[in-house]
Structures are given as C-alpha cells and as structure tokens.
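User: I'm new to structure prediction. If I give you an amino acid sequence, what do you actually give back? Let's try with this one:
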Amino acid sequence: MRIGELSKIARRRRLDRVLITDPADVRAFTGLNCDSAVVSAGRGEGDVVFYTDFRYAPMVRREAPRLKCLDTARLSLKGRRIGYVASMSHSRYLALHRLAPRAVFVDVARDVAAARAVKTPEEIAGLRAAERLNCEIWAEARAAFRSGMTERDMARVIRRLMIDRGDGEAFDTIVCVGANAAECHHEPDGTVWNGREPVLVDMGVKLGGFCSDMTRNVVPPRQRPLYRGVYKLVLEANLAAIDAARPGVTGRALDKAARDVIAKGGFGRCFGHSLGHGVGYEVHEAPYASKRSADVLKPGMLVTIEPGVYLEGNLGVRIEDLVLITADGCEVLSFSEK
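Assistant: Good question. You get back a string of structure tokens that encode the predicted 3D arrangement of the chain. For your 338 residues, that looks like this:
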C-alpha cells in the first residue's frame, strides 16, 4: 500500500490536501476495491481519511482497520490549495468545489500516475501471474481455433477461458482475420477464418484486480512474401525495443528504438500508434512509450512493447509483449512463442 505517497505529493506541491476518487487510484493507494470513495490526505504522516458510504464501510473497517473511515456525508474540505485528479467527472468536481468554494484546485494527475507507475513487490507478483495466465489461455485458445470459425467465435473462446480461469477480460478481446488486422482496434465480426489466412489477436485477462496485455499472430504455414517481410520487420522492431528497455531510458527513446527499425524497412508511415503503455490495475496507465513521452523508465515499472505495421485493405501485424523494468534491463513477462 502506497498511501503515504499522497501526503508526499501534498508536501511537494504545497497543497493542504490531496483527493483521489477514481477506483483504480483508490485501489493502488489503499489496496481497497471500492467504486464509491473519496480518499483525502493531508501533509502529515497518517493524515488520511477514507470517505465512503454504508455499502462499503464494513469492508474498509475489516480490510484496513488502521485507516480512518467516515461516511461520505461527513466529507469536508479545509485549506486554500487542494489537489485533485482532473479526469474526474465534472459533476464530481463541482460537488467537491462546493465544499471549498474559495480554494484553488490543483491538478495532480501526473503526480498520482507517477506514484502508481512503480509497482510494489506485491503488485509485480500479481501482474506476473496475470500475464502468465494470459499466455496459458492463448495456448488453449489457439489450439481450439478451427477453420470455419468467425472472429466472434474465436473471441468467445478466449472470453470463456478468461471467465473460467481468471476474472474475465481486462479489455474487449481483438480478433482480426486477414485484412481486418489493418484496423488496429478492429471489433470482431462475422468474418470467417478459412484456416489459411493470418489472424491477429490482442488479449488480456484480469486476475486479482490486475490486468495483462499481449498480442500474437496466427501465422499461416504458407505466407505471402509481403506478409512474411512485414512480420519479420515488426518482430525485429519488437526485439530492438526490448533490448533498449532499461532504467533511465525515456518513453520517446524507447518508442524510437522500434520506430527506427520500421522506418528503415520502408513502412514508417504504417506505424501510426505509440509503442506502448504501462499496465496495472488499468490496462493503460503510466509510463507511456510514444514519440512525445518524457516518462523515464525506473525499476519496478511495466510497459508494453507493441510495434505494428498496418496496410489498409491488405494486412496488419502487431507483436506485443509486457516487460518489467529491472535494475539493469528488463524481463519479458509474455512467454508465448512469437
């Protein structure tokens, strides 16, 4: 539990209090799974109050007996400078602002995201287990795919396994047959797989509150020369970025390591998304690896490495691994064959 980080943010930003309300933030900082909470932290050590309602108060008292828990109706805000995460709904912001109409509200979203980005040992263990299960489910699902199945059929196979073996999907599974893979976030439809076309699958199971993420391709035994060349190029970019992933590297430098490979291969314009993102209680969180990301990788961070090439109406290839930044490099958590 990293609850003390909120008070550190308050001191560093010279704030009287810091508030978090998003369920993923609440879980990351308190360890409590509650979708109706306001966590209020002051500058002092231990100056934290967990506000929630009748439905969740017994759970909070049982799981975190040392944490001060009050009913949301008793929420009050004092101080001239109050930190909040600006991604909250406008109605929630207005409700909080009414409690302190003369206060200046300061967005601390980047501070909160940065604190969450470095995972605790317990979080790393949970994320490792989720990615391991994701790989196992992929192996089972791949073995169950048959010619004549639609994209929806294959997505259902994966979804059922995730429900049976985990806590369901971390995000809607993407299954793309043939040219549909040129659509990065294609929604599985009635396209039938003939057993000879490539298939791209982007999937992540949720386990114990933790997300996973991985993209693999069903590569046909007989490939068109163009597909073979693109696949080889994307794999080279994937491996180059993995080799570059280490402490001190910025998100933009990591993105560049993969992007330069694809650009040199002549497909730079066909890699239109960022290289990767962090994974934790949410499937997209800090750190980010993109052309503009100034995030600096640190030991304990997790980030996806997912370069891709997309030729509209023709083909698409993306290869995605989840890696853990270590003291001197990275550990690839996605062990499925590429």
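You can read the tokens as a compact description of the fold. Here is one thing that stands out. DSSP finds nine helices and 16 strands in the chain.
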